[in-house]
Amino acid sequence: MASSNGRKATEIFQGQAILYRCMFAFLDSMCLKSIIELGIPDIIHKHGQPITLSELVSILNVPPARVGHVQSLMRYLAHHGFFERLRIHLEKESYALTAASELLVKSSELCLTPMVEKVLDPTLSASFHQMKKWVYEEDLSVFDISLGCSLWDFLNKNPSYNELFNEAMTRDSQVSNLALRDCKLVFEGLESIVDVGGGTGATAKMISEAFPDLKCVVLDRPRVVENLSGNNNLTYVAGDMFKTIPKADAVLLKWILHDWADKDCRKILENCKEAISSNNGKRGKIIVIDMVINEKQDEQKITELKLLWDVSMACAFNGKERNEEEWNKLFMEAGLQDYKISPLTGQSRFLLPPAIEAQAQVASPLRPCLVVPFPAYANTSQ
What number of other Cβ atoms are within 10 A of residue 31's Cβ? Predict the structure, then answer.
């Protein structure tokens, strides 16, 4: 039977399911936030083995009337891959950590809890309720509308948020650096490198430890680097990438360009070219680590993540994630050319989507500019 709009009932029900799934998607984040606040990943980790529901609610001191509700929470998150549901003796249900929930264990070196806390902070996440107004307000982000200033200015004015943001980015770098460690050929032969917008230096530290003779410089906002100390081959410099970038053999832009519109990216890339081309005539390299959207080749979940991140960058910074065609256009407009796509693989069993390489047109010959797409995802074929 068809409805008044000509669609079959089955089509309408399918549409309703899509609508309701999106409508309730905010609960994904709230469920995630709740298990962090309850400390459930840490509880299971300390337990040392799968934990039964009765053991979990006992440790949490949950009222009897809420036991079934905790079970619903755990069942839902298990369905989404945060826990593994197991059956042990006497048919008792138990839960074990998965690769996703292990990233929420606070004692882990790869803990991403600060990233979740940053994204789901009520003050910051509430800004996204301004998306309708944001559509009509040229050049304003949702933070400009909601907080009266950009996120960067808000962080400068609020030290506690600035600390949370820096910790979140540091933790995220520790995870993404797992893939970067297998790209050591990118850094071989270099004598100096500047990590532009490198935050507290998690990535630069990894590079400096792998290459003790490589001089690493982290360039970031004064508020970020003012109290940081380096070592023999790692230093911190307060500055503005839109004004000048220290001279070096190479410039690293990790998760930087997606924060900015094309016109701003062109300025950053031009300053990068100046930094490497004026370094005593040495050959230079620009290294960019960012997403490359590929809806045809990426797995559905990877594509969904990239498209969500694109919306997030647009709302938060008027930035964007780019597909290969958009990277090509950006490079061409910044005076970069001759790019090619090549996959990167590593011993850590990570497979990164295709990388973009481009060579800059400047007076001195340059090594390729490498764009390493993010996120990395498991290579199950190995």
Answer: 16
Give the angle 304-138-309 at the CA atoms, nearest 5°.
15
List strand residue ranges (DSSP E) for 68-183, in order: 83-87, 93-97
Q: What are the structural domains of the chain? A: 9-102 (1.10.10.10), 113-378 (3.40.50.150)
User: What is the per-residue pLDDT for 363?
Assistant: 27
- Under 8 Å between Cβ of 378 and 301: no
Can you tell me the distance from the alpha carbon of 233 to that of 211, in angstroms, rounded to the nearest whole number? Answer: 9
What string of DSSP letters covers 152-189? HHHHHH-HHHHHHHHHHHHHHHHHHHHHHGGGGGGTTT
Peptide bond into 64 cis (omega under 30): no
Which run of H or E residues covers position 251? strand 250-254
Q: So what's the pLDDT on residue 117?
A: 97
User: Looking at 320-378, which runs of residues are DSSP E strands?
Assistant: 322-323, 336-345, 350-360, 369-372, 377-378
Phi, psi of 303 (to 5 degrees): -60, -45
What gap in Å lies between CA 296 and CA 261, rounded to an integer? 24
Max CA separation in the chain (angstroms) = 76
Would the pTM count as exceeding 0.70?
A: yes
Q: How far apart are CA 281 and CA 88, in angstroms?
A: 67
Q: How far is CA 355 from CA 16, 32, 331, 333, in A?
A: 39, 32, 14, 19
Contact 179, 350 (CB under 8 A): yes
- Give the strand order in the sheet containing 93-97: 51-52, 93-97, 83-87
Whether 45 is catalytic is: no
The answer to whether 88 and 50 are in contact (CB under 8 A) is: yes
Q: Which amino acid is at 165?
A: F
> Which residue(s) pair with 360 in the sheet?
336
- Residue closest to 257 by CA, chosen among 170, 343, 329: 329
Q: How many other C-beta atoms can be found within 10 angstroms of the C-beta atom of residue 211?
A: 18
Residues of the chain with pLDDT under 70: 1-4, 88-91, 279-283, 337-382
Out of 79, 80, 89, 258, the active site residue is 258
